[in-house]
C-alpha cells in the first residue's frame, strides 16, 4: 500500500479519514431518468447551483444535479436535518418539487432567505410525500408544492423535523421554479477563464460555466502539496492563491489540477507587504533595471504555465501600493505609486499577449489602492484586495469608486494583529478561536452578500506554521485543525463541516502582575469539546515581543486540565502564553494571553536612561524605552546600506556593579562582531566582552562584574548590508543599587586517553542524547525541542524580516543547533530528523570547550526531509554542533529530533553457527553495549525499505533495559522456550518518525517470543503489513498508531497477551488472532478478531460502550468489527530457542513446532509451555550467505529441515520441499529471489510441512510463481496433519522490476495459511503497469484451505482467485492496482475491472469474514475515473457466504459500482467513507444480486508441478558433516479410507495420465554417464506450449523448452551426477496439454562409457554449456498470455 507521490519519492500517502461514515440506505437500483421539462411559466432555478446541508454536505450537490440516480442523504437517526440551495441571486420563487427516496420526511417545512441566515417559512408539509404514480422507480416519492404567494429569495431550504422511517432524510432531487432577476445574457467567448457581465451581474466563467471562487491562500511547501490537499478539498475549497510563480510551482499546480482545484497564480513584486523578496525599487527612474527583470520573469512563467489546467487567473504584486510608504513619502510616494500601478498595467498587457485565456488582477492591502489601478492599470480584468477587520467596508468603497469591473477578496479572515488594541503589557490582544471562526464567516458573507460584484475570496490562511502568526491566522496550525478550518468548511459547504471539530477554550487567565524570570506562575483555562472527546492540554510560549522570536516553544509546566504551574522564561519582556486543547482527532483549540517577565539577572539599570549613538535612523531613546516594538537603528544611505563603525551608549546616571548586557537585535540588522565596553567617566573605555561571528537574534553578553556608569556597544562588523538595529539594550545589576572561563572540559575523566576505549568491533549508534544532563542551545529557537522526548515538539530556527520593515519573512542560512553532552565522549556520528524545513547542506562540528570548533563531517545535497545518518571517525567531544550551510526551502531549518552517536568497542555477540547477521544478546552484557548494538542496526535499517540488510536479534533468557527500536528487515526474538523467559523494559519498538509519523510503509519486521514492559506504561507497534507480533507478553498498553497519530495500515497479532489496552485509532485495518487483551479501542474500516479474549471499547472514556469479545458494541459497521469466538484449525509458527546454554553449539538450539489446535481461544502458553515438539538444530541445514539452491535441495533430499539465516538468497533453481514433516524456517526476513525463471519454492503434497518467516521477491526474469504449495491437480487428505505457512511474504517490484505470473499458488488440500502479504509494489524501484507485472496474488486450487490474515495488494487481475472447495478466509485486506492505465486495459468478459476477491463459479462451498477492498487509481483522470464493477465476486449459491465486507475509494480515486455481485452502494466519494455489506447473500433477500461470470480460464493459475516434487537437477552436494542427515519415515501419500472428500485421488505420476505416449520421444543416446548430457527430441505436442523433460523413477526435472509451430521440441538435458546407476525413464510432458511420452535411458557410472567405448554422441560440449547455464528456456514467451475462450 502506498502513496500518490511519483515513484522516485519515498513518501507514501493514505487518504485522510477522520471518522467512520454511516451505513448508506441501500435502495433498489433506479434506471436513468430524465427530469420533466418545466411547462411554460416558471423556470428551473436550482439545477447545478451550490447546495449545502446540515450533514453529509459534500453530497448535497447530488440533489440539484438533475439526475434521479444520485441523491443526498443525511446522517441516520438525527432530527432535524436540512438541505438548502443557493440560487445565485435574488429570484421569485413560485414552485418547489421534492423527489424523495423512501427515507423521506413525514414533517418538514420549505423556507426562504435573502442572506442564508434569516429564514421565513413559506410552506408546511401536511405529511409524508406519496409514491409517485406511474414511476418506474419504486423508491421515488414526490411532493410538488406551488406556493400560495410567490416569495422573493436567493436561498431555499427544506427543513425536516420528523422522518417517515428509520435511517435519515434522502432526496433524489430538489427543484425550485420561478423567475430570476433578469440580466443581459452572457455569451462565453471560448476562453478558458474569463470575466463577463456588467455591474451587478459580473461573473467569472471557467470553461463557459459560472465559477465562484471559494479559496484559501496556500501555505505548505509546494513539494509536499499532496500531503495537505485532501483536507483542503474537504473544506469545500475550489481555489488556492500563491504569492509567487516559478519552477517550484509545477508540482503544486499538478496536485491542484488533479484534485479539481484552481490556482490564483501570483507574481511577487517589490516592495510587497507580505512574504516575498522585499526591497525598495525605483519605479519612476528604474536605474537598476528592476522592472525589466521583473517583467522578464513574469512573461517567462506566464509562457510556461499558460496552458496549465490549474491556472485560474494571474495576480501581479501583493500590497505594494501600501508597502511603498515604507520606502518613500510625500510627492515621491505618489509618483512611485503611479509608476508602480502603471508597471502593473504593463505586466497585464504582456500577460494578455501571451495568455488571452486567463484574467489578470493585482492585489493590494487596502481599497485606497484601487483608484491608482483605475487610473493607471486599465488592462486589469478585475480588482483584488486583502481585507480583514475592515472587510465590511470593501463593497461600499467599490460602489463609490465606480470601477467598472468586479473584485476578488484575495485575503480575509480574523481581525489582524495590526487592527487590535494592545493589552497592559503592550501586546496586541489576540481574538479568541470563536472570534476568529466568526471572522471567516463574516468575510465570506461579505462576498455572498454581493453576488455579481464580488467574485469570491481566497481567505487567509491554509498554513501549517506553528508560530505567533501561525496561531493567529492559520486554520491548520502545526497541521492541526482549528475552529476556523471548520468555519470555512461550513461557509463553503465542504464535507469537513460535519467532521469532528476542535475543542473550544471558553476562558483563560494569567497573572496581571509581573513575574520573575525563571520563577513559576499560574495559568488557568477551561475547555469543552463539541463532540464529547477527551481533551489533552499543552502550554506553549512565544517570545515575539520579548526576543523577536515568533516560534512557539513548549513551556516547562505541570498540571493537566484546569490549572497549570508554568516556569517563566529566563529572558525578560512581554511573553505570550498559549494554552492548546487537543481532542485526539487532529483538532486543536488555542487561546493566548500575555505575561510580563522581569529578568532574573537583576535589575535593568538602563531602562529609561539617556542614550546616544554615533548616528540614528531611529531615535536612540527607543533602544532603552522598554518597548519591544520600537527600536534604535543606525543611519542608512539612499540604498539602505549602513556602516560598520557605529556605536550606541547609555548613561546609567550613576555607577552600578554590572555583569550582563542583553541586545535584542532586529532581524538581519545585527552586530556580527562588536565589543561591549564600560566606562566610569564616558571617556576612558574598558572592553569587557568581545562578541565575534554572532548570528541574528537576542544576544546575552555576560562578563565579570565591574563598576560602570556608561555602557557602550561598539560595532565592528554588521551582520548584513543594513546598519545596526535593536529593539532594546538592557544592562543588568544584581541589586540595582548605585554605589570568564577556561578552554578545557573538567568533566572529561581521561581527555588524553584513547578516543574509544576497550576492545572489539567499533559500533557507532548509541544515542548520547538519551543520557542525563544533556542540553541544547540554538542560534534561534529552543534547541531543547530537538532532544526532548515529545514527538510533537521540534526545533525551528524561525524566519527573519529581510530587510527590516519589508514584511518579507524568510529563513536564514548559517543557523545552528548545539548539544552539550555534559561531559566528553567518543562521538562518531549523528542523525537529525529533518522537518519539512530541512538543510540541503550542513556541517557537523565538535568541540571540547564550546569555543574552538572542528568540522567532523560535511553533508551536501540533501534532497528532502526525514532522518539522515552521518558517521565519521570517532572523535572525543563534549559539544556537537549542526550548522546549516544552505537551506533546502525558503524557510528556516527545523528538526524534530537529533541523535548523536557514541562510538563503542564491543565484542559482537555473533556465532559461527548462525552467521554474522544473527546477534545473540546476553543479560550479563553491558546495557549500553546492548543499546549501542540495537541503535546501530536501527540507524541502518530505519528507512532502508528496499535494501538488502537483514538482521535477527535474539535475547537469551533474562531481564533487559533497552529501547528496542525495530527497523526494516529486523526480527527480534526471545531465545527462551516461553515468552516470559525474556523481559525487555524500555521505549517504543516501532514508530514512524522516518516517514513524518506516517506508518503506512512500516513493513517487513517482527517481534516474537518475549515480554515487553513499556516505559511509561504504553509502547508503540505502529506498523502496517508484514510486521507480525507473535508470542509477545505486553505488560502494559500497546498503541498501534504512530506518535503523532499518523496513518497506519496494519496489521497482525497472534498468540500474544496485552495486560492493558490496545489502541488503534488511525489503523485502517487489523487482524488479531488467538490472543488476549484488556481492552481494544479504535479502528477505521476493518477490524477482525478470532479466538481473542478481552473487551472491545468505542473509545477512551470511562463511560464509552464496550463489549466482551466475541461480541462487540453496536451493530456492524458501527463499529467495523468482526469477532469470531474461535479461529478454526490452526498451528502456531515454529520458533528457534536456546534449549541449552551455549549459543555456539547446534545441539544447544532447538526449533519448537506447536501442535495443531482447534476450538481454542487466547494464547498457547497461558497455562504453561506451548504444546508441541522440539527438533534439535542438529536436524537442520543452516543456510548462510553464499549457499546455493543445489546445497539446500541436497540437504532437503537428505532428510534435513532448513533454517535460513538472515540474508538475500538468489536461487537459480527451485527449492524443493518434499519430505513430510519438514520445517523450513527463516530468520530476519530471509529473502529468496528465484533468478532462473522457475518457481521460487515448491512444497510437495505431503503431511505436516511447515514453512515460516520467508520473503519471496520476484526477479526481473519472470517466474510462473514465487511459492507453490502442493502438486498440480492432486488432492490428498492432510486434515490431520496439514501444511502450515506462517508469516510468508511475497513481493513483486520495489527492489527491482520483478515479474511473476501468480505470486502464490496453493494446490494442497487442507493447507493453513497463517498471515500472508502478497504485494505487487506500488512504490520503490521497477514500478509500472508494464514493469513489475503480475496478474494474480494468491490462487487456491486445493480444497479445505484456510487463510487467516490474508493481505493481497495491487495485482493486475484477480488479487485472490479461489477455485478450491470449502475454503475459509478470516480477514482479507486489499488495494487494487494503483497504476491501471485506462478502463479498456482493465476490462474483461463484459466486466469492468477485476474483483479483488474472486471465488470461481465452480465452487459450491466457501465462507469468509472481515473483507475489505480499496481503490486508489492514480493514472486515471477526474473525467474518466477507473471503475470496477465490484470488489468481490462469488457464486450465487447458498453454500457460499461472505460476512462483513466493504469497499472504499480512497479520496474518490476510483469507482466501485457495488460491493459484491451487484449488491452494495456505489462508492466513489472523496470523503473516503466505505460502502458496507453485512452479509452476502442476505438471508432476508437471498436472491439479491447477479451471478458473476466465471473466471477466465488461465493455465497460469495452475502451474505445472511434479506430484512427488522435482529435485534439483544440479550435482548434489552433501550437507556439512556436522549436520548429518536424520531422515524421518515418509508418510503415505494415499488418501485415507475415511477421506470424506468427493474428489478421487489423482494418479501420482506423469506416465499414468490418459495421454501417456501421445508424444513420441527420441534420445540421442541410449546410455549416458551420470553427469553427462543428451539431446531429447519429441513430437506430438501442442504448438507453443511449455515442455518439461523429467527423469524417473524419482522424478527430477532435467530441463524445459517450448514446442515449435509443428508441435516438436529439441532440447539438451544434463543427467544429475547423483543419479543412481541403472535403467531410468525420460518423460517429456506438455505443460499445457498434459500430453506425455517417454523413452528408456541407461545411466552408467562416470568413466564407464570411456572405458567401454560406449555411446557418447556429439553433445559433450553442449552439455558443458548447459551445465553452466542451468535450466534452458529456448524461446522466450510473452508474459501476458491471452485468456482462453
TrEMBL record:
Keyword GTP-binding on this protein? no
**Region Disordered, annotated ranges:** 737-761, 1468-1558
* Keyword match Cytoplasm: no
Q: SUPFAM superfamilies given for it?
A: (Trans)glycosidases, Galactose-binding domain-like
The family database entries (CDD domains) matched by this protein are listed as:
GH55_SacteLam55A-like
| The organism's place on the tree of life at top rank | Bacteria
Gene3D superfamilies hit by this protein: Galactose-binding domain-like, Glycosidases, Immunoglobulins
Q: Which Pfam families match?
A: F5_F8_type_C, F5_F8_type_C_2
User: Which PANTHER family is this protein grouped with?
Assistant: F5_8 TYPE C DOMAIN-CONTAINING PROTEIN, FTP DOMAIN-CONTAINING PROTEIN
Transmembrane annotation, as ranges: 1656-1676
BP-aspect Gene Ontology terms: carbohydrate metabolic process
Q: What is this protein called?
A: F5/8 type C domain-containing protein
- Biased composition, Pro residues: where in the chain? 1510-1528
Entry's InterPro entries? Answer: BG_Antigen-Binding_Lectin, FA58C, Galactose-bd-like_sf, GH, Ig-like_fold, SACTE_4363
Alphabetical UniProt keywords: Membrane, Transmembrane, Transmembrane helix
Q: Which residues form the F5/8 type C domain?
A: 21-179, 590-734, 757-903
Amino acid at each position: 500500500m502506498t502513496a500518490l507521490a511519483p515513484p522516485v519519492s519515498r513518501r507514501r500517502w493514505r487518504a485522510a479519514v477522520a471518522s467512520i461514515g454511516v451505513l448508506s440506505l441501500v435502495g433498489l437500483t433506479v434506471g436513468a431518468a430524465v427530469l420533466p421539462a418545466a411547462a411554460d411559466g416558471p423556470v428551473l432555478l436550482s439545477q447545478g447551483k451550490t447546495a449545502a446541508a446540515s450533514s453529509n454536505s459534500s453530497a448535497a450537490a447530488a440533489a440539484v444535479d438533475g439526475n434521479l440516480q444520485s441523491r443526498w442523504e443525511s446522517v441516520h437517526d438525527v432530527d432535524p436535518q436540512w438541505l438548502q440551495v443557493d440560487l445565485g441571486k435574488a429570484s421569485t420563487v413560485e414552485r418547489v418539487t421534492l423527489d424523495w427516496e423512501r427515507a423521506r420526511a413525514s414533517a418538514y417545512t420549505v423556507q426562504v432567505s435573502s442572506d442564508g441566515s434569516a429564514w421565513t417559512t413559506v410552506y408546511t408539509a401536511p405529511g409524508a410525500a406519496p409514491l409517485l404514480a406511474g414511476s418506474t422507480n419504486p423508491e421515488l416519492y414526490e411532493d410538488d408544492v406551488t406556493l400560495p404567494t410567490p416569495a422573493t429569495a436567493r436561498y431555499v431550504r427544506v427543513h425536516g423535523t420528523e422522518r417517515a422511517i428509520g435511517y435519515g432524510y434522502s432526496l433524489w432531487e430538489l427543484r425550485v421554479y420561478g423567475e430570476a432577476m433578469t440580466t443581459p445574457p452572457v455569451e462565453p467567448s471560448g476562453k478558458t477563464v474569463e470575466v463577463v457581465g456588467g455591474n451587478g451581474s459580473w461573473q467569472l466563467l471557467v470553461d463557459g460555466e459560472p465559477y465562484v471562487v471559494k479559496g484559501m491562500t496556500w501555505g505548505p511547501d509546494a513539494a509536499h502539496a499532496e500531503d495537505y490537499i485532501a483536507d483542503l478539498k474537504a473544506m469545500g475549497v475550489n481555489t488556492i492563491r500563491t504569492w509567487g510563480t516559478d519552477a517550484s510551482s509545477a508540482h503544486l499546480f499538478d496536485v491542484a489540477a488533479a484534485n479539481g482545484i484552481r490556482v490564483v497564480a501570483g507574481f511577487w513584486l517589490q516592495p510587497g507587504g507580505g512574504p516575498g523578496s522585499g526591497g525598495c525599487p525605483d519605479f519612476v527612474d528604474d536605474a537598476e533595471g528592476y522592472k525589466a527583470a521583473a517583467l522578464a520573469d513574469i512573461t517567462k512563467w506566464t509562457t510556461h504555465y499558460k496552458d496549465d489546467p490549474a491556472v485560474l487567473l494571474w495576480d501581479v504584486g501583493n500590497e505594494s501600493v501600501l508597502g511603498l510608504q515604507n520606502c518613500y513619502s510625500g510627492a515621491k510616494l505618489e509618483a512611485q505609486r503611479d509608476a508602480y500601478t502603471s508597471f502593473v498595467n504593463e505586466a497585464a498587457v504582456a500577460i494578455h499577449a501571451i495568455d488571452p485565456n486567463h484574467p489578470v488582477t493585482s492585489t493590494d492591502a487596502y481599497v485606497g489602492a484601487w483608484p491608482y489601478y483605475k487610473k493607471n492599470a486599465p488592462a486589469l480584468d478585475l480588482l483584488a484586495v486583502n481585507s480583514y477587520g475592515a472587510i465590511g467596508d470593501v463593497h461600499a468603497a467599490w460602489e463609490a469608486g465606480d470601477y467598472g469591473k468586479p473584485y476578488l477578496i484575495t485575503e480575509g479572515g480574523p481581525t489582524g494583529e495590526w487592527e487590535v488594541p494592545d493589552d497592559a503589557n503592550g501586546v496586541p490582544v489576540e481574538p479568541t478561536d470563536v472570534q476568529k471562526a466568526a471572522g471567516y464567516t463574516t468575510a465570506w458573507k461579505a462576498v455572498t452578500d454581493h453576488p455579481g460584484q464580488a467574485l469570491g475570496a481566497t481567505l487567509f490562511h491554509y498554513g501549517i506554521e506553528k508560530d505567533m502568526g501561525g496561531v493567529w491566522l492559520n486554520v491548520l496550525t502545526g497541521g492541526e485543525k482549528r475552529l476556523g478550518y471548520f468555519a470555512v468548511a461550513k461557509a463553503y459547504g465542504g464535507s469537513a463541516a460535519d467532521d469532528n471539530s476542535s475543542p473550544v477554550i471558553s476562558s483563560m487567565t494569567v497573572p496581571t502582575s509581573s513575574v520573575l524570570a525563571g520563577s513559576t506562575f499560574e495559568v488557568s483555562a477551561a475547555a469543552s469539546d463539541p463532540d464529547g472527546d477527551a481533551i489533552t492540554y499543552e502550554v506553549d510560549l512565544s517570545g515575539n515581543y520579548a526576543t523577536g522570536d515568533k516560534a512557539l516553544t513548549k513551556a516547562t509546566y505541570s498540571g493537566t486540565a484546569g490549572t497549570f504551574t508554568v516556569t517563566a522564561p529566563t529572558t525578560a519582556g512581554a511573553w505570550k502564553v498559549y494554552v492548546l486543547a487537543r481532542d485526539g482527532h487532529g483538532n486543536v483549540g488555542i487561546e493566548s494571553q500575555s505575561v510580563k517577565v522581569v529578568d532574573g539577572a537583576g535589575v535593568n539599570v538602563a531602562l529609561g536612561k539617556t542614550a546616544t549613538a554615533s548616528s540614528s535612523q531611529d531615535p536612540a531613546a527607543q533602544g532603552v524605552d522598554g518597548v519591544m516594538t520600537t527600536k534604535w537603528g543606525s543611519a542608512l544611505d539612499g540604498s539602505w546600506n549602513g556602516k560598520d563603525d557605529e556605536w550606541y551608549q547609555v548613561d546609567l546616571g550613576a555607577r552600578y556593579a554590572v555583569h550582563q548586557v542583553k541586545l535584542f537585535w532586529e532581524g538581519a540588522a545585527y552586530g556580527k562582531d562588536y565589543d561591549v565596553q564600560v566606562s566610569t567617566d564616558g571617556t576612558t573605555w574598558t572592553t569587557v566582552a568581545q562578541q565575534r561571528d554572532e548570528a541574528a537574534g537576542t544576544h546575552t553578553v555576560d562578563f565579570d562584574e565591574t563598576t560602570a556608569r556608561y555602557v557602550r556597544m561598539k560595532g565592528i562588523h554588521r551582520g548584513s548590508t543594513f546598519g545596526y538595529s535593536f529593539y532594546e539594550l538592557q544592562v543588568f545589576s544584581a541589586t540595582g543599587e548605585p554605589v570568564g572561563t577556561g578552554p578545557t572540559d573538567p568533566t572529561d575523566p581521561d581527555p588524553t586517553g584513547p578516543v574509544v576505549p576497550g576492545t572489539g568491533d567499533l559500533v557507532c549508534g548509541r544515542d548520547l542524547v538519551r543520557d542525563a544532563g544533556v542540553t541544547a542551545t540554538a542560534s534561534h529557537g529552543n534547541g531543547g525541542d530537538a532532544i526532548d522526548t515529545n514527538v510533537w515538539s521540534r526545533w525551528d530556527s524561525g524566519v527573519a524580516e529581510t530587510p527590516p520593515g519589508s514584511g518579507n519573512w524568510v529563513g536564514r542560512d548559517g543557523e545552528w543547533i548545539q548539544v552539550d553532552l555534559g561531559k566528553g565522549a567518543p562521538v562518531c556520528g549523528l542523525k537529525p530528523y529533518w522537518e519539512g524545513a530541512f538543510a540541503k547542506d550542513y556541517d557537523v562540528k565538535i568541540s571540547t570547550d564550546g569555543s574552538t570548533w572542528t568540522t567532523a563531517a560535511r553533508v551536501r545535497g540533501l534532497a528532502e526531509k526525514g532522518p539522515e545518518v552521518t558517521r565519521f571517525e570517532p572523535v572525543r567531544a563534549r559539544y556537537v554542533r549542526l550548522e546549516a550551510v544552505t537551506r533546502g526551502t525558503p524557510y528556516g531549518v527545523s528538526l524534530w529530533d537529533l541523535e548523536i552517536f557514541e562510538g563503542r568497542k564491543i565484542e559482537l555477540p555473533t556465532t559461527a553457527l548462525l552467521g554474522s547477521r544473527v546477534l545473540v544478546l546476553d543479560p550479563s552484557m553491558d546495557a549500553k553495549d546492548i543499546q549501542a548494538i540495537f541503535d546501530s542496526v536501527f540507524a541502518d535499517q530505519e528507512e532502508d525499505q528496499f535494501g538488502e540488510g537483514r538482521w535477527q536479534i535474539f535475547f537469551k533468557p533474562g531481564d533487559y533495559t533497552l529501547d528496542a527500536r525495530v527497523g526494516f528487515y529486523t526480527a527480534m526474538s526471545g531465545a527462551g522456550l516461553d515468552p516470559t523467559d525474556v523481559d525487555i523494559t524500555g521505549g517504543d519498538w516501532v514508530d514512524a518518525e522516518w516517514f513524518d509519523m506516517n506508518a503506512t510503509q512500516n513493513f517487513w519486521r517482527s517481534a516474537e517470543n518475549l515480554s515487553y514492559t513499556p516505559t511509561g506504561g504504553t509502547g508503540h507497534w505502529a506498523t502496517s503489513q508484514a510486521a507480525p507480533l507473535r508470542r509477545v507478553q505486553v505488560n502494559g498498553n500497546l498503541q498501534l498508531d504512530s506518535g503523532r497519530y499518523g496513518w497506519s495500515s496494519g496489521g497482525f497479532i497472534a498468540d500474544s497477551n496485552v495486560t492493558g489496552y490496545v489502541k488503534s485509532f488511525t489503523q485502517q485495518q487489523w487482524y488479531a488472532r488467538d490472543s488476549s487483551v484488556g481492552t481494544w479501542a479504535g479502528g477505521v474500516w476493518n477490524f477482525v478478531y478470532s479466538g481473542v479474549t478481552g473487551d472491545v471499547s468505542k473509545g477512551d472514556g470511562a463511560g464509552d460502550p464496550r463489549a466482551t469479545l466475541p461480541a462487540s458494541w453496536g451493530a456492524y459497521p458501527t463499529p467495523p468489527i468482526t469477532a469470531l469466538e474461535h479461529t478454526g484449525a490452526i498451528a502456531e509458527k515454529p520458533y528457534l530457542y536456546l534449549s541449552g546454554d551455549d549459543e555456539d553449539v547446534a545441539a544447544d538450539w532447538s526449533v519448537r513446532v506447536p501442535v495443531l489446535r482447534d476450538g481454542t481461544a487466547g494464547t498457547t502458553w497461558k497455562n504453561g509451555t506451548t504444546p508441541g515438539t522440539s527438533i534439535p538444530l542438529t536436524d537442520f541445514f543452516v543456510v548462510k550467505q553464499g549457499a546455493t539452491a543445489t546445497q539446500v535441495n541436497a540437504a532437503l533430499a537428505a532428510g534435513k529441515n532448513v533454517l535460513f539465516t538472515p540474508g538475500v538468497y538468489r536461487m537459480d533453481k527451485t527449492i524443493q520441499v518434499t519430505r513430510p514433516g519438514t520445517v523450513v524456517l527463516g530468520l530476519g526476513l530471509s529473502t529468496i529471489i528465484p533468478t532462473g525463471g522457475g518457481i521460487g519454492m515448491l512444497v510437495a503434497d505431503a503431511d505436516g510441512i511447515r514453512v515460516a518467516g520467508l520473503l519471496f521477491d520476484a526477479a526481473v526474469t519472470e517466474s510462473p510463481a514465487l511459492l507453490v504449495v502442493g502438486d498440480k491437480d492432486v488432492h490428498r487428505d492432510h486434515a490431520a496433519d496439514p501444511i502450515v505457512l506462517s508469516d510468508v511474504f511475497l513481493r513483486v517490484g520495489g527492489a527491482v522490476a520483478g515479474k511473476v505470473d501468480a505470486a502464490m499458488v496453493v494446490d494442497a488440500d487442507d493447507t493453513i495459511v497463517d498471515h500472508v502479504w502478497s504485494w505487487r509494489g506500488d512504490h520503490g524501484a521497477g514500478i509500472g503497469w508494464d514493469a513489475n507485472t503480475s496478474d494474480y496474488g494468491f490462487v487456491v486450487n486445493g480444497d479445505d484451505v484456510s487463510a487467516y490474515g490474508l493481505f493481497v495488494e495491487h495485482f493486475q487481475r484477480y488479487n485472490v482467485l479461489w477455485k478450491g472447495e470449502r475454503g475459509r478466509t478470516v480477514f482479507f485486506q486489499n488495494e487494487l492496482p494503483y497504476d491501471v492505465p485506462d478502463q479498456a486495459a482493465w476490462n474483461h468478459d463484459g466486466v469492468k475491472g477485476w474483483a479483488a476477491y474472486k471465488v470461481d463459479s465452480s465452487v459450491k462451498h466457501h465462507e469468509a469474514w472481515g473483507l475489505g477492498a480499496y481503490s486508489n487509481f492514480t493514472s486515471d483522470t477526474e473525467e474518466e475515473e477507473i471503475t470496477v464493477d465490484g470488489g468481490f465476486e462469488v457464486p450465487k449459491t447458498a453454500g457460499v457466504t461472505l460476512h462483513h465486507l466493504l469497499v472504499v475509494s480512497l479520496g474518490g480515486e476510483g469507482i466501485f459500482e457495488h460491493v459484491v455481485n451487484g449488491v452494495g452502494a456505489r462508492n466513489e466519494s472523496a470523503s473516503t467513507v466505505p460502502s458496507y455489506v453485512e452479509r452476502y447473500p442476505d438471508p432476508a433477500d437471498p436472491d439479491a444480486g447477479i451471478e458473476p461470470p466465471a473466471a477466465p480460464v488461465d493455465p497460469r493459475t495452475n502451474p505445472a508441478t511434479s506430484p512427488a516434487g522435482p529435485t534439483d537437477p544440479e550435482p548434489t552436494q552433501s550437507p556439512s558433516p556436522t549436520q548429518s542427515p536424520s531422515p524421518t519415515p515418509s508418510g503415505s501419500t494415499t488418501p485415507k479410507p475415511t477421506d470424506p472428500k468427493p474428489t478421487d485421488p489423482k494418479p501420482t505420476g506423469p506416465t499414468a495420465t490418459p495421454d501417456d505416449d501421445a508424444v513420441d520421444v527420441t534420445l540421442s543416446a541410449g546410455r549416458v554417464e551420470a553427469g553427462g548430457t543428451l539431446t531429447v527430441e519429441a513430437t506430438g505436442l501442442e504448438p507453443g506450449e511449455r515442455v518439461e523433460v523429467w527423469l524417473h523413477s524419482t522424478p527430477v526435472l532435467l530441463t524445459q523448452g517450448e514446442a515449435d509451430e509443428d508441435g516438436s521440441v529439441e532440447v539438451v538435458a544434463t543427467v544429475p551426477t547423483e543419479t543412481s546407476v541403472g535403467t531410468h525413464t525420460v518423460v517429456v510432458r506438455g505443460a499445457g496439454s498434459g500430453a506425455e511420452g517417454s523413452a528408456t535411458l541407461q545411466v552408467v557410472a562416470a568413466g564407464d562409457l570411456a572405458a567401454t567405448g560406449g555411446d557418447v554422441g556429439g553433445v559433450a560440449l553442449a552439455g558443458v554449456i548447459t551445465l553452466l547455464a542451468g535450466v534452458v528456456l529456448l524461446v522466450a514467451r510473452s508474459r501476458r498470455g491471452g485468456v482462453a475462450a
